[in-house]
Design goal:
Layout (H helix, E strand, L loop, with lengths): L1 H7 L5 H15 L8 E6 L4 H14 L4 E4 L3 E4 L2 E4 L9 H13 L4 E5 L2 H5 L8 E6 L7 H4 L2 H16 L5 E5 L5 H5 L5 E6 L7 H5 L3 E9 L4 E5 L2 E5 L4 H16 L4 H9 L9 E2 L7 E5 L4 H12 L6 E5 L10 H12 L2 E4 L9 H16 L4 E2 L9 H10 L1 E3 L3 H11 L5 E5 L6 E3 L5 E3 L2 H13 L8
Helix pairs in contact: 2-4, 3-10, 3-11, 12-13, 13-14, 16-17
């Protein structure tokens, strides 16, 4: 029905179409957000993990909480996968989920709130009480028509909360765009920072400013000090200290005690496909992560460099459909900066040719290396020592088939190496041409290929 309506509505009326649907969805489900304390998390990266940490803290501390993110949904202790491939659900689905939260007795709803969702008015008719800003870097620029418009979409969440009596804002004060968010007059504000060298007077004058320091990342956890309290988080990466700090600020704003918050974070569960450690007993490390744009990609590679393992092997691609083409060579440059072996492959190509997307990424890799990539029409043998040395000297591969790319990476891995499989994370589909979706489970594929290698099953054939 909605797809038919979209075809009938003229392009110049699409904005009103989205606006009206938002209120219609809320009306049908009886404005459920009015019976919840709704927390919206926005930014470029860290949204999904921050939402999960907030929900886990609130549930642990006895307040039943519902959540909607790119990866997963939850209502209290019940959790299930988001298979819609939408960061923010459509208006009717989202309002229905909020109604289910109300009927289940939830006090809180935590919603990952995307710029795309805001552009389509999915946030309308939702009574947000708390807005969280994680960070901002260029993404979806083509969709928004420029970075300023992208930032303006994010700001709308804070403008909405500012209209609410007792609205709360939580801010990453280390981000260079934070002044734009602080300019919106929200009553109660909480900020967190590591550098704490405020980029503007609003950040400098913020009263509820919390310092994060002594961040230490290991292969199994991240520890940090928040003000005077030491926290241990069973998630890896410096960026997860930031995500946790945002969640702590939200919890403090709701009157929770720091001791309770600390216990909850000690027991935090990792999010599927977010720096997910794959352990099948192999002698090398393997991590699956959603990092699909330059900031998160570099953050993930920086994090694993702290592990002091031998070589870093990275398997990644870039989305098609004409989205953010500018970032493709940049991703290649970042891979070259941090990885010893680079395998560029397919990642949601849509209607673009996967090989052409890969070539655009390789421009960034090869401009730094001054070499040429190896295209594996016939993959290397897994057993021949000479053949393997020849491959390692080349160290850049173009492999269109993603499973095959994973297979090659696993086969090349030696003791104490680390492989980062980036881009797909916990997604359950791969978007290909003509709008088709292919079922995909990155973690399962990686586990299968590792088990095959350990069982001495020939995984690569000429």
């Amino acid at each position: 029905m909605k797809s038919l309506l979209r075809k009938l509505v003229p392009e110049f009326m699409m904005n009103w179409y989205h606006f009206i649907l938002a209120y219609l969805g809320a009306l049908i489900y009886r404005f459920p957000s009015r019976k919840l304390i709704v927390i919206g998390v926005t930014g470029t990266t860290g949204k999904t993990t921050t939402c999960n940490l907030i929900a886990q803290i609130l549930n642990y501390c006895g307040s039943k909480t519902g959540m909607a993110t790119t990866v997963n949904f939850c209502i209290g202790g019940e959790e299930w996968i988001n298979e819609y491939k939408q960061t923010m659900l459509g208006r009717f689905k989202l309002q229905k989920l909020l109604r289910q939260m109300v009927e289940a007795g939830c006090k809180y709803a935590v919603i990952e709130t995307s710029s795309e969702g805001i552009l389509q008015h999915r946030h309308r008719a939702i009574d947000y009480s708390v807005a969280v800003f994680t960070n901002l870097s260029p993404e979806h620029i083509e969709r928004h028509g420029g970075f300023e418009n992208y930032r303006a979409a994010k700001l709308e969440l804070f403008e909405k909360v500012a209209k609410r009596e007792g609205g709360i804002g939580v801010y990453n004060l280390d981000d260079e765009n934070v002044e734009s968010f602080l300019a919106i007059p929200i009553k109660r504000r909480y900020g967190y920072c590591t550098k704490c060298r405020a980029s503007g007077y609003r950040a400098a004058m913020l009263e509820n400013k919390h310092h994060i320091y002594d961040i230490d990342v290991s292969p199994s956890k991240t520890s940090f000090v928040f003000d005077d309290e030491k926290f241990e988080l069973p998630l890896i990466g410096e960026f997860n200290a930031y995500n946790a700090a945002a969640a702590i600020c939200v919890a403090l704003s709701q009157g929770l005690e720091i001791g309770q918050i600390k216990k909850a974070l000690t027991l935090a569960r990792p999010v599927s496909g977010r720096m997910e450690i794959i352990d099948e007993g192999q002698d090398f490390a393997a991590i699956v992560d959603y990092a699909h744009e330059p900031a998160s990609f570099e953050g993930a590679l920086k994090a694993i460099k702290n592990f002091n393992l031998k070589r870093t092997i990275v398997v990644f691609g870039s989305a098609g459909g004409g989205r953010d083409k500018w970032r493709r060579p940049m991703m290649g440059e970042i891979a070259d900066k941090y990885a010893e072996i680079i395998i560029v492959t397919t990642d949601d190509p849509g209607d673009e040719k996967p090989g052409e997307i890969i070539d655009e990424i390789l421009e960034g890799v090869l401009s730094a290396k001054g070499g040429s990539a190896v295209r594996l029409s016939s993959p290397p043998k897994s057993s021949g020592g000479k053949n393997r040395e020849r491959i390692l000297k080349k160290n850049v591969f173009k492999i269109v088939d993603r499973r095959r790319a994973i297979r090659v990476a696993v086969d090349l891995a030696q003791s104490d190496d680390l492989i980062l499989f980036a881009g797909k994370g916990g997604e359950t589909w791969m978007n290909v041409k003509n709008g088709k979706k292919i079922p995909w489970d990155e973690s399962a594929v990686v586990r299968e290929e590792i088990r095959n290698k350990m069982a001495d099953i020939p995984v690569i054939k000429i």
